[in-house]
Amino acid sequence: MTEYREPALLSREADDIKDRLNLPEGLHDLKAKERAAIPQQEMPAQEARIRAHNMDEVALGYTESQVIVEASRCLGCKNAPCVAGCPVGINIPGFIAAAAQYKFDEALQIIQESSILPAICGRVCPQEKQCMQLCTLGKIKKDPLQSVAIGRIERFLADHGSSHSTLDSKQPSTGKKVAIVGSGPSGLTTAADLARLGHDVTIFEAFHKAGGVTVYGIPEFRLPKSIVSREVENLEALGVKIIYDYLIGRTRTIKELMEKDGYDSVYVANGAGLPKFMNIEGENLVGVFSANEYLTRTNLMKAYDRDNAATPLYSSKKVAVFGGGNVAMDAARTALRMGAEEVHIVYRRTEAEMPARKEEVLHAREEGIIFDLLTNPSRILGDENGRVRGIECLKYKLGIPDESGRARPEVIEGSEFQMEIDTCITALGNSSNPLVTGTTPELEVNKWGNIIVDENGMTSMKGVFAGGDIVQGAATVILAMGDGRIAARGIHQYLSNEAQPL
Ligand SMILES: Cc1cc2nc3c(=O)[nH]c(=O)nc-3n(C[C@H](O)[C@H](O)[C@H](O)COP(=O)(O)OP(=O)(O)OC[C@H]3O[C@@H](n4cnc5c(N)ncnc54)[C@H](O)[C@@H]3O)c2cc1C
Ligand code: SF4
């Protein structure tokens, strides 16, 4: 765990480096060796013991000096390996070079050529497994976490930007209507691209708010909802219509959208909203939640805002969260903020195998989440009123790698032990949402219920495209956006060919 350093101190350090390196406006002629020697700028954050009890954003964002210094670390590699690690292919050296010269609007425009959600991606993308993993600087330092902090620079530019020029450049109307199912990152990206191309786009959303997991799943302290709303407003300014509380598969089927409502094409981006359970004894007790339900109540339904929201939330003292991904970290840190005295992450492998972002695991530890590693619940214990009173767990050891490439957890026989717990949250991942596929037999799915698409994002049903978590299984924001861009190109080509198959 790193020692906490005040934002003001980090800011002063960046000012000093900027002065020492003589980085006035427009001048940017450092040698590669000098760039590589600049220390990575730490992200200012709320102190752990304070933030563990509020819903405000944990990471506070770089100051201008920190951005200039961090951007000056970029070596401007000619082959730009970082770009290959970005699912939407952002011109990373291009926007960083502009940022290093204080051209913040220009830098944001470069990002917006490839991504419409920079404020979201700058906060939640697993950069250390994507762009930063391939960054030359990280390779020199032998640690992807020491690469250029690409996402932190992106976040600064998105938060400070006033420019939406690429979003504004709209083509004349084509007269074609496209329906989009779901307003998560994938649906929003496709909507933006298609609206810019002059198509008439309508998004149908089951909830009363747009944003998908970014509003109902990822907590306020990691991604403030006002940021998602701002991105949605930009889209509406482009002419995209959003119809809320509208359930495709119930209110209207895909066939009806096309045959009765006159949509020329449909993009299905309804995500992976079906929580997985462990199928162990006691999972139906009062006090057991799926992470989806727990997070939706706190985020979308604002249960944390006790004075203004009517959403009830189970009162918990000792919470166990099962899982080791981002969803588990979010649920555990939310439970702490909702007043729990003790929160455990129960995970059957070690921290090295955890799928959660490194930064989120570190933040969770700093806030006091207890990690019970190489441990898994075998049953949930109830009291005479049918409420959770504890869990029984088994200890595990790591064996040879399984099909996921990670070491296989193996039970240690006779290792049973019990923990006193009053709330269990299962965060084992999500399966594809079955509502649309269940009512549209024409859509071919794989054995997990994910929709099968071709290289243009088109499904087995003519004119119907799909992408994001419903195709990939539970994935990431940027992968969902990447699919959205591919499908937008595919839909445009399909519509331009007068509805001829591709
Ligand atoms: C708690 C949590 C934390 C996460 N943290 C991260 C992270 O840190 N970084 C990261 O990159 N990824 C993270 N992810 C994953 C990421 O959020 C998803 O991969 C991404 O949101 C998928 O986008 P999508 O557009 O495919 O679907 P979604 O975001 O799931 O959006 C689907 C939308 O479709 C709507 N919908 C569903 N069915 C229907 C229907 N029948 N009719 C109309 N509308 C419908 C839903 O209400 C929803 O708004 C996290 C996921 C969760 C659950
Ligand atoms: S790989 Fe790293 S150093 Fe090279 S251009 Fe990309 S961000 Fe800059």
TrEMBL record:
| EC number(s) stated in the UniProt entry for this protein | 1.4.1.13
* UniProt entry keywords in alphabetical sequence: Oxidoreductase
InterPro entries, sorted: 4Fe4S_Fe-S-bd, DPD_II, FAD/NAD-bd_sf, FAD/NAD-binding_dom, Helical_ferredxn, SudA-like
Enumerate the Pfam families for this protein: Fer4_20, Pyr_redox_2
User: What are the residue boundaries of the 4Fe-4S ferredoxin-type domain, all occurrences included?
Assistant: 65-95
From the record, what ranges are coiled-coil? Answer: none
Is DNA repair one of the keywords UniProt gives this record? no
Tell me a Gene Ontology molecular-function term this record carries. Answer: iron-sulfur cluster binding
The record's listing under SUPFAM superfamilies reads: alpha-helical ferredoxin, Nucleotide-binding domain
What is the protein name for this chain? Answer: NADPH-dependent glutamate synthase
Species of origin: Oceanispirochaeta crateris
* Lineage per the UniProt record: Bacteria, Pseudomonadati, Spirochaetota, Spirochaetia, Spirochaetales
Q: Which gene encodes it?
A: gltA
